[in-house]
């Protein structure tokens, strides 16, 4: 599975650790920045890059990390076809994938330690969407906007 990963400066160190962890667990990983620690950088840039990658590479997944996870979640969800979910535990990650077919996982660098993040990431990446008619209908309605990029 192809996984695109991005973070701002607040998530930079945890992203670096997560990249190594994902590679060790046989995921195909692409780092979408930040590529170096730059205090005060914007969460928008890696979130936009990951959202575009996920949108353009069917079946891929994204992971974003910022201080609270709120900013990257909001930014990623501005892209048609992207379903970003802020998850703080394994069960919420499984529900995001299984019920809502989320394709971008957003994590808080402030509230989660590396070990907890790893468990959430594995739960997210190893859970399949359960394709019930009502879930598919609801997901299709997410892109009923008129003003996309």
How are the strands of the largest sheet arranged?
2-1-3-5-4
Tertiary shape: globular
Distance between the termini: 27 Å
CATH H-level homologous superfamily name? Sugar-phosphate isomerase, RpiB/LacA/LacB
What's the number of helices? 6
- Helical coverage, percent range: 40-55%
| Beta-strand residue fraction | 15-25%
Give the ordered list of helices and strands: EHEHEHEHEHH
Summarize model confidence as the mean pLDDT. 95
What's the structural domain tally?
1
CATH class: Alpha Beta
CATH topology: Ribose 5-phosphate Isomerase B, Chain: A
SS elements, strand count: 5
Secondary-structure content class: alpha/beta
User: For the report, how would you describe the main beta sheet?
Assistant: 5 strands, parallel
CATH architecture type: 3-Layer(aba) Sandwich
Outline the low-pLDDT stretches. none
Subunit organisation of the chains: single chain
What radius of gyration results from the CA coordinates?
14 Å
Describe the fold and architecture.
This protein is of the alpha/beta class. The chain is built from 6 helices and 5 strands; from the N terminus they run E-H-E-H-E-H-E-H-E-H-H. A 5-stranded parallel β-sheet has the order 2-1-3-5-4, with helices on both faces. Strand 4 (84-86), helix 4 (90-100) and strand 5 (104-108) form a beta-alpha-beta unit. Helix 2 crosses helix 3 and helix 4 (90-100) packs parallel to helix 5 (114-125).
């Amino acid at each position: 599975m192809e996984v695109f990963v991005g973070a701002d400066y607040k998530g930079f160190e945890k992203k670096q650790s997560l990249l190594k962890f994902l590679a060790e667990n046989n995921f195909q990983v692409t780092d979408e920045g930040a590529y170096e620690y730059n205090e005060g950088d914007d969460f928008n840039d890696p979130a936009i890059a990951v959202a575009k990658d996920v949108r353009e590479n069917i079946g891929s997944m994204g992971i974003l990390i910022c201080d609270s996870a709120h900013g990257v979640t909001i930014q990623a969800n501005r892209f048609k076809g992207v379903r970003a979910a802020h998850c703080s535990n394994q069960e919420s990650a499984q529900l995001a994938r299984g019920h809502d077919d989320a394709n971008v996982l957003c994590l808080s660098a402030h509230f989660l330690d590396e070990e907890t993040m790893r468990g959430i990431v594995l739960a997210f990446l190893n859970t399949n969407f359960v394709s019930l008619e009502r879930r598919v209908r609801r997901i299709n309605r997410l892109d009923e906007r008129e003003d996309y990029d």
